[in-house]
Amino acid sequence: MTRIIDGKAAAERLRARIGGDVAAFVAQGGPVPGLTVVLVGRHPASLAYVGTKTRMAEAAGMNGRLLELPDTATTAELLAVIAELNAAADVHGILVQLPLPGHVDASRVLDAIDPAKDVDGFHPLNVGRLFSASGGIPDDLLLPCTPKGCMILLRETLGELRGKRAVVVGRSNIVGKPLAALLLAADCTVTIAHSRSTDLPALCRSAEILVAAVGRPEMIRGDWVDEGATVIDVGINRVAGPDGKSRLTGDVAFAEASARAGAITPVPGGVGPMTVACLLDNTLIAARAQHRRPT
Ligand SMILES: NC(=O)c1ccc[n+]([C@@H]2O[C@H](COP(=O)([O-])OP(=O)(O)OC[C@H]3O[C@@H](n4cnc5c(N)ncnc54)[C@H](OP(=O)(O)O)[C@@H]3O)[C@@H](O)[C@H]2O)c1
Questions:
Q1: 233-265 pLDDT, tens per residue?
Q2: How far is the CA of 249 from the centre of ligand 1 (A)?
Q3: Which atom of ligand 1 is nearest to the CA of 194?
Q4: pTM here?
Q5: Which of 62, 114, 201, 252 could form an SS bridge with 86, CB 3.0 to 4.6 Å?
C-alpha cells in the first residue's frame, strides 16, 4: 500500500524537539535564539509566510521578530539594516523574505548577511561549503530549509539512502541544486532534470527517489513514476478548483502517482510544513555556533 508521507506530523515532531533543545540551551546559560525576518512591502503571500515564521519561532521559545520596510526601500537602506542586524548580539538568524521589489539588488542584499546568521542557507559561503562537502555534511552547516526538510522526510521514509537512484526535476538555487547536492552527499546517484531535458517521463521512471520542484501544476503524471518509487512533491501551485475556488496543488498528479508510488508527499501537508521547521532548526544551530564563537 502507498504510504502518504505526513510532513505536517514530521514538522510538529521536529518543532517539539527544537523547543526542548532551545529550553535546554537557555537553561545551560545560552542566549534565547533570535530570528529576525525582514519584509519589504506588503505582498499578501509574503505577509502570511513571515507571520508563520515568527509565530513558530516564538512557539519554540525563540525571539521571532518581524522588521517591516516600505516597498520603496532602496538597496542601500536594506544594506544598512542588514549591517545593523549582523552586529546585533541578540539576533542569531536573519531571513530576508523573497521576492524583493524589482529595484532592489537582491543578491547584494543576500550576500551582505553574515554567513553565520544566514538561516536561509543562501549565502555563497554556505552554498560553497555544501557543494564542496566531502565525507558528510557538517552538523553546523546552515542548509537551505526546503531541501533540508526533503532530506529529513526521505530519511524517515527510506532509512538509508546510499546507492539509490534519485532524479530531481528542477535546478533552482533554492530547491533543485541544493537538494541534488544533499542527495549526492548521502551517496545517491543523482540526475538533475530541467526544462531542456529530453524524455523527462523516461528519466523520471528511472528514479527510486523522484523529486519534483518545477512550479507547474501536476506536470509529473502517474506513468512517469516507477512502481514503488518514493515521490517528494515540492511544488506549491494555486489553481482554480472545479467549484471555482482556488486550491493548492503540487507538481505531481497526486491521484495517479499515488497509485504507483511506494510513498508520496501530499500538497498541502508534505514538504511545506518542513520548511519552517528547518528554519527554526537553523536558527538554533546558528545561536549555538555564535554562543561558542561570537561573530
Ligand atoms: N514547499 C516549500 O516550502 C517550497 C519552497 C520553495 C519552492 N516551492 C515550490 O517549488 C516549486 C519550484 O520552486 P523553485 O523556486 O525551485 O522554482 P523556479 O526557480 O521557478 O525553478 C523551476 C525549475 O523547474 C524547471 N522547469 C520548468 N518547467 C519545466 C519543464 N516543463 N520540464 C522540466 N523542468 C522544468 C526549470 O528549468 P530551467 O532551469 O531550465 O528553467 C527550473 O529549474 C514551486 O512550485 C514553488 O512554489 C515550495
A1: 999 999 998 888 999 999 999 999 999 999 999
A2: 14
A3: 34
A4: 0.97
A5: 114
